[in-house]
Amino acid sequence: MESKQLVERILASDLTNVTNIGYLFDMARNLDDIDLAKRARACALKAVRSDARAYELAREIYDWLATRDFDSYLIALEWNRKPEERFYMPRRKQLKAAVDGLQALADDNLDELFLSCPPRVGKSTLLLFYTTWVMGRNSELANLYCAYSDTITNAFYNGILEVLNDPVTYRWHEIFPNSQIAATNSKDETINLDRKKRYASLTCRSLYGTLNGAVDANGILISDDLLSGIEEALSKDRLITAWGKVDNNMLSRAKGGCKILWCGTRWSLADPIGLRIDTLTNNENFKGRRFLVINFPALDEHDESNFDYDYGVGFTTEYYRQRRASFERNNDLASWNAQYMGEPIEREGTVFSPYDFRYFNGVLPDGDPDRIFMAVDPAWGSGDYVASPVIAKYGNDLYVIDVVYDNNDKRITQKLIADMVLKYNVSAMQVEATKMTAAYAEGVEELLKEKGKKINLTTKAAPQTIGGKTQRIFDKAPDIRERMVFLEDGKRSKAYSLFMQNVFSFKMVGKNKNDDAPDSLCMAIDMDQMTAFKTRIIDRLW
Fold it and tell me: Is 512 found in the same domain as 492?
């Protein structure tokens, strides 16, 4: 009977039966079929509750897959540990995208991979486990780990040895039973598996250490935090020096089909990672180079933690919001965005500072406002934000009492805008109109009409160029600082906090990822200046 027919026959059998599951796994091994093995594993895991033998079968399948599939390796490696003590399983949901990227690198579907994530979320341990997997799969390949200091490379070297030498905590030798440590050198930070070679299975070196002649990497080259921190990132001379070391020393060590893994905090657009991404993106000589950039921000698009792991080993939304507030108070949101959000923002050219703004605690001045109005910078969704401040005018002061700041579909954001009108009894609204958003105001007006609410709703053409929008924000910046009064930190909604983050991130130089919030404030200033008027009594002219 042909293999295909036999597999179909087994799949049609009772796969709650451990014996049949075992047959399916045997076929997967014979055919070296990873997907079929994963299917057998899923059946075994389901059968564990009714048959204890399924547990050992599941472990056996994990071990077989572990040499081929990085995700399976991470689970098999810690199989004997208590669930709450494992590294990977409590973090798997969040780190799976990185694991998939690392798998693509190993499967030759990528040439280079860029990973960025906040501090202490498990990046270093993931890289460490990945390296032990790469070494076990092919001990003949020479791999290089590079960081900015000997302290980091030494810690990585010792971490690798711990995984290889601790059979109680880790099952590396059970997964790779034919691999043995042939030689180690703590001074040179090298590890050889199976036999001693000129270029070791793993060499760890600092960027400023001896790289020339130490290794020619043909497996994987891992760069991990090539900058020491903010001081180096702020120095143009030190950035130039670091890139010179990377380009001339480190990258020249990558030979043949060597894969390159870039990890670290994105301090600056001109850091080594940024320069490499720019080279791969814009240099025609690298047109065929396959690369992927993965960034894990601390907070997602809903301002919620991306790293609230099981068993309390991660970081809550409250923790990250408090960290952000600390950076904001120190007037250093650029560092927050770099370290925690993976967004390098150059400090030169930022237009707005938290210390330059006026704030109120949520209590408005006595009496009714002169008027309440909204300016709307619309969007259709797909990642773009609708930004709209709700303004209560008292004399010359414009109190930003609430905002809409949301990147959902237009049906959701139009309702948010209409709800704000009803909540604050808004009397006038101006919607910026382009060819793409001209119908946005009509949708809002229709929703208000259904509620029986009439307001003075107008549209105004948007600036024709990106440069025009940037210049408008710069021109209106003094009015925003002097006339607008914002809710103080601690009184803001989630949307309001994100809105302010976007304002403080705006800069005149370089590319702004999103300038909707500051642009909507400019619209509000324009709207007020166009409609501001004074009255006086005059004699009848007729």
Answer: yes
- Find where tokens 């600036």 sit: 463
The segments of the chain whose pLDDT lies below 70 read 1, 212-214, 231, 331, 345-349, 381-383, 435-438, 463-468, 508-514, 531-542
Is residue 325 a part of any domain in this protein?
no
Q: Is the dihedral of CA 97, 99, 100, 104 positive or negative?
A: positive
* Phi, psi of 461, deg, nearest 5: -65, 140
Give which of 6, 46, 5 is closest to 26, Cα–Cα. Answer: 6
- Rounded Cα distance, 431 and 444, in Å: 10
Residue 328 located in a structural domain: no
> Cβ distance 49 to 43 under 8 Å?
no
Q: Do residues 59 and 83 both lie within one domain?
A: no
Claim to verify: residue 56 and residue 104 sit in the same structural domain: no
Sign of CA dihedral 137, 142, 145, 150: positive
Q: Is residue 540 part of a domain?
A: no
Helix H segments across 246-316? 272-282
- Closest C-alpha to 232, from 246, 253, 212: 246
Residue 331 structure tokens: 């007037």
Residue with tokens 């047109």: 287
CA 184 from centroid of its chain's CA atoms: 36
Q: For the chain, first and last CA: distance in Å?
A: 108
State whether 27 and 90 are in the same domain.
no
With 0-12 / 13-18 / 19 or more C-beta atoms within 10 angstroms meaning exposed / middle / buried, residue 469 is buried
Q: Write out the DSSP string of 9-76.
A: HHHTS-TTSHHHHHHHHHHHHHHT-HHHHHHHHHHHHHHTTT-THHHHHHHHHHHHHHTT-HHHHHHH
Q: CA Rg, the chain, in Å?
A: 29
Number of domains comprising the chain = 3
Element holding 131 (H helix, E strand) = helix 123-137
Strand order across the 259-263 sheet: 181-185, 190-193, 202-206, 143-147, 220-224, 259-263, 112-116, 291-295
Contact of 338 with 344, CB cutoff 8 Å:
yes
Q: How many CB atoms lie within 10 A of CB 218?
A: 20
Report the DSSP beta bridge partners of residue 193. Answer: 181
pLDDT at res. 535: 39
Angle between helices 317-329 and 333-341 (to 10 degrees): 150
Spatial contact of 354 and 333, defined as CB atoms under 8 Å apart: yes
In a domain, 148, yes or no: yes
CA distances from 257 to 88, 104, 253 (A): 29, 14, 12
pLDDT given at position 244: 92
Domain assignment of residue 412, given as a range? 354-531
Together in a domain, 273 and 415: no
- Which pLDDT does position 464 carry in this prediction? 60
